[in-house]
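SEVERITY: medium
COMPONENT: batch folding queue
REPORTER: lab tech (J.R.)

DESCRIPTION
The queue accepted two submissions in a row. Attaching both inputs and their returned structure tokens so the on-call engineer can compare them side by side.

ATTACHMENT 1
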Amino acid sequence: MPLGANKAAIMGVAGVSTADVVLLSSQTASNATSVTFSSGIDSTYSEYIFKFYNLNPATDGAFLTFQVNATDGADYNDSAITTSVFYNKHSEADDSTNLAYLTDHDHAQATTYINIITGIGNAADESASGEMHLFDPASTTYVKHFYTNVNMVQGPAAGNSNFMVSGYINDTTAIDDINFKMNSGNFDGLIKMWGVK
């Protein structure tokens, strides 16, 4: 059967063959302060995909953030990250929309935690889901590029919002550790890490 006729059955994460994508780790957060992937990020794969499933913060309007450690780091404040942030929103009441480049959420050579998405609602039916792609983190020659695409129900003004963040980790030391947390309070949800051959 031609590939096109059976594409839906054989394509997996990020639209590549499921034979090329390997689930490496799955972590469930239950009132957690953070989720850390500290093993499995190495030269085995040239791309790593992190999937976020229904992340629900304890604090209404919390920001999902991340930071990394290089192989010579230990405290998530040594690798400088530069980003650009694009945002779109449509309220549940159909009374407001927004499409913007968010300069106030950009980072330039920041060693603090980086915003992936801002303003996640904490009600029982509110959450954020999406993904982050990290390219060639084991390189000892180049910076490490990444991008994220995350949807959420935004609180306190409920509505659908989408954040797209792109950037690079300005570190030519291999990155082997990544930490996700809310900027305020704990959270529930599921994060999975995939390796792409």
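ATTACHMENT 2
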Amino acid sequence: MWTLHATRMPELRDAILAGQFQRLACPECGRAVVAEPTLLYTDFDRHQWYGTFPTNAVKNWGAIAQKVRDGFQHNMMEACPPLVREWAPHFQVRAVFGLAALREKLLLHEAGIDDRWIELVKLRMLRDTAAPWLNVRTRVWLDQLDDEGLDFTVVGPNAADGTEVVHRIRVVRGALDEIVQSADRLANTWPELFEGVAVDWRILFASNSPLPEHPKDDEQLLLDHLYNMAPR
């Protein structure tokens, strides 16, 4: 399990925001690829505690979210000095799936926008653009935002052959304003997004599989990382 303390290593936070973190060039073809690590991202100045996992780990989101909560509880509320315990209520705790999603969390925090609102914007955007993309195979992330709107990248399955199709979609700022105005009602409709630490629209469509008892090699690596996040 990597631990990235942005307070001590602000240059890595800058690299994430620039989209350069873990971006490597393939030695064979030269194409840029992003290696998604499992890491604990913390920023004590900004009160952020983000357990970050590969994007396809969303299938185990319930168990992963519990491990992130357990790790935060142990490290920030139990096995810690009293001063740290006083900081804990101010932290945003999240289970994040994918580096693009981590970058999105940082952008939203900087802009003062609740990440739960953005997940609802994504749901509405996908419904209105291509309803078949409302499934766990689709990935959506915020690229940038300004006073007029929000720019998203959508990677969804092609209806014809299932291959991935990349789209850039701009959503006017008014769509976010509508979500904010309806936040209380929507919180009752989508409690999974508003009450937990896995704030990702895909959890509404994911199987929420338990962590495997007899994992494959990649699943074992994920389990090892998870168990390092919480007391044994």
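NOTES FROM REPORTER
The first strand starts at residue 2 and ends at 5.
No errors were logged for either attachment.
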